[in-house]
């Protein structure tokens, strides 16, 4: 969702009685260094436990029920705009990260050093937007971003989806029911 489409989309969803999650900012970053040790961008280095994929980072006014801090402190209002990071536990384990470590990210060709203040457990199967790295509210204000949200649309509402895409042709729609169905069919065929 582009920034200027956020309010019109919210109004459209409300008008059509669609419950949705909040809109979360989404910026793309590249991990450049951990504790000032440069990360190689060579794909062969994946075997050496480095992260070469783009990261999608976001912020939330509060942690959702499917995010639990397992180590460190939650962001406070006085942290707004500060260069802090909350990292997902599997990502932290993969990179050997701990509280106080520094992640250097490239956002819009600008290096940004973030200090890890907490590690979170995320329930990825909630089908709600979740992220490997969160930053305090306001931190992404000056960086390019889009927004992400989710809502439920039944299979019987194809006319609603058609209206949605006609009114907002720049948004992306992911049909989770179709994806889950294909996974179910795949598992049935394997078993």
The oligomeric status of these chains comes to single chain
Structural class: alpha+beta
- Low-confidence regions: none
Compressed to H and E, one letter per element, the order equals: HEEEEEHEEEEHH
Mean pLDDT: 88
- Helix content class: 10-25%
The value of Rg in angstroms is 19 Å
Number of helices: 4
How far apart are the first and last residues' alpha carbons, in Å?
39 Å
Tell how many strands the DSSP assignment holds. 9
Overall form: globular
Binned strand content? 25-35%
Strand order in the sheet with the most strands:
1-3-8-5-7-6
Please outline the major beta sheet. 6 strands, mixed, barrel
What's a quick, concise take on this entry?
The protein has 191 residues and is of the alpha+beta class. It is 22% helix and 28% strand.
Overview of the molecule:
With 191 residues, this protein is α+β, with helices and mostly antiparallel strands. The protein has four helices and nine strands; from the N terminus they run H-E-E-E-E-E-H-E-E-E-E-H-H. The protein has helices spanning 6-15, 89-95, 158-167, 176-190, and strands spanning 24-34, 37-38, 54-58, 67-72, 84-88, 102-107, 110-122, 133-134, 146-148. A six-stranded mixed barrel has the order 1-3-8-5-7-6. Strand 6 and strand 7 (110-122) form a beta hairpin. The longest helix has 15 residues, at 176-190. It is globular and about 50 Å long. The protein starts with 5 loop residues before the first helix and ends with a helix. The model has no long low-confidence stretch (mean pLDDT 88).
List keywords for this structure.
six-stranded mixed barrel; 28% strand; 4 helices; single chain; alpha+beta
């Amino acid at each position: 969702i582009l920034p200027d489409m956020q309010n019109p989309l919210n109004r459209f969803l409300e008008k059509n009685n669609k419950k949705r999650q909040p809109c979360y900012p989404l910026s793309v970053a590249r991990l450049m260094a951990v504790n000032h040790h440069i990360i190689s961008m060579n794909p062969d280095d994946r075997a050496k436990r480095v992260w070469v994929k783009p990261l999608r980072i976001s912020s939330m006014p509060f942690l959702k029920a499917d995010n639990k801090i397992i180590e460190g402190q939650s962001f406070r209002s006085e942290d707004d705009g500060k260069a802090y990071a909350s990292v997902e536990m599997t990502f932290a384990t993969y990179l050997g990260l701990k509280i106080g470590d520094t992640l250097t990210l490239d956002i819009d060709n600008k290096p940004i050093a973030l200090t890890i203040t907490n590690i979170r457990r995320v329930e990825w199967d909630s089908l709600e937007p979740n992220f490997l790295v969160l930053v305090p509210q306001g931190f992404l204000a000056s960086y390019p971003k889009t927004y992400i949200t989710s809502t439920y649309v039944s299979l019987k509402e194809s006319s609603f989806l058609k209206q949605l895409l006609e009114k907002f042709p720049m948004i992306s729609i992911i049909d989770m029911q179709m994806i889950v169905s294909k996974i179910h069919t795949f598992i049935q065929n394997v078993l």
